[in-house]
Specification:
The chain has helices at 3-9, 44-56, 89-98, 154-161, 212-224, 232-239; strands at residues 18-26, 63-64, 73-83, 104-112, 124-133, 146-148, 166-169, 184-195, 198-205, 254-260. The chain has 285 residues and is α+β, with helices and mostly antiparallel strands. The chain is globular, with a radius of gyration of 22 Å. It starts with a helix and ends in a 25-residue tail after the last strand.
Length: 285
């Protein structure tokens, strides 16, 4: 057999496909949410996949930990993708950031086992809802915080929020159009902290329903303003009807700040943010 024939008969070496996890932070103001939309509608996922595809030199699809809504931000959205491109974490980090718009950044990239899944491997998600509480409308951060001009009593808000801890049916705190199969979720912690003129609602749960955090924020702001009694948060919960809840708080005060995974994946850790609240980064879980 000739050498040419031998080469033709030899099976080609299969490309090695690797899975990579990455942390994405973004300002959601200009986007219709994380999830890829129809052509012409801007999404964070579309921008991230375009940048990844340029670095990988092939089309890349991503999965995320939580699909944030239009106008919602993230300081730590976790994604994963598969690629046969031979790139180091350093290559992914610098190459992707060079191809992203200024309001999206890749914070880190890390190789993971093939069984890692950004959504299904997650054990908990953590959000922060940021309220700017001052009589004067802020000229800065206007689309990154929710402004409330009424004096808000943080102690009342925090006390009311404790009724939502634990596992409950959160039907009254989810959007009417929510498509989750079950309204039962487990809230691990829920705190209200004043940080200068900011009030931060810090919440961690195994999973969240559509508009759940924003609806909780809406109820607690009414309680903080003295418009409703402290027990109202519990009464809304027990009613199990969205009609009993308050207004849905605006999207632009909301940040996805952390996702918890089993330790065996050894993912890098990053401070939770958002950046202008760096003094809260050491807050215990």
């Amino acid at each position: 057999m000739s050498s040419t024939t031998s080469k033709a008969a030899a099976p080609e070496a299969a490309a090695v496909v690797s899975r990579v996890a990455a942390c994405i932070e973004y300002r959601g103001t200009a986007y219709r949410g994380w999830q890829r939309q129809q052509p012409g509608v801007r999404s964070v996922q579309e921008q991230v996949e375009k940048a990844l595809s340029k670095v990988a030199n092939h089309p890349v699809s991503t999965s995320c930990a939580g699909r944030t809504d239009a106008g919602v931000h993230a300081s730590c959205q976790i994604i994963h993708f598969d690629s046969d491109a031979q790139r180091t974490p350093f290559n992914w980090f610098h190459g992707v950031n060079a191809n992203l718009p200024a309001d999206i950044s890749l914070a880190w990239a890390h190789p993971v086992d093939p069984d890692f899944h950004a959504r299904f491997s997650a054990m908990a998600r953590r959000y922060r809802y940021v309220i700017y509480n001052d009589p004067v409308r802020p000229a800065h951060l206007a689309h990154e915080v929710t402004w409330n001009y009424r004096p808000l009593d943080v102690e009342r808000m925090h006390e009311a929020a404790q009724a939502l801890l634990g596992e409950h049916d959160f039907t009254a705190y989810r959007a009417v159009a929510c498509q989750a199969k079950s309204p039962v979720k487990k809230v691990h912690h829920l705190r209200l902290i004043r940080f200068g003129q900011f009030i931060v609602l810090d919440i961690r749960a195994n999973a969240f329903l559509h508009h759940m955090v924003r609806n909780i924020a809406g109820v607690l702001m009414q309680i903080g303003a003295g418009e409703r009694p402290i027990d109202w948060a519990r009464e809304v919960l027990e009613a199990r009807s969205r009609r009993e809840g308050g207004l849905t708080a605006p999207a632009f005060g909301l940040y996805l700040v952390d996702v918890t995974y089993p330790e065996r994946f050894v993912l890098p850790r990053r401070y939770m943010g958002p950046h202008f609240l760096s003094g809260l980064n050491d807050l215990d879980d």
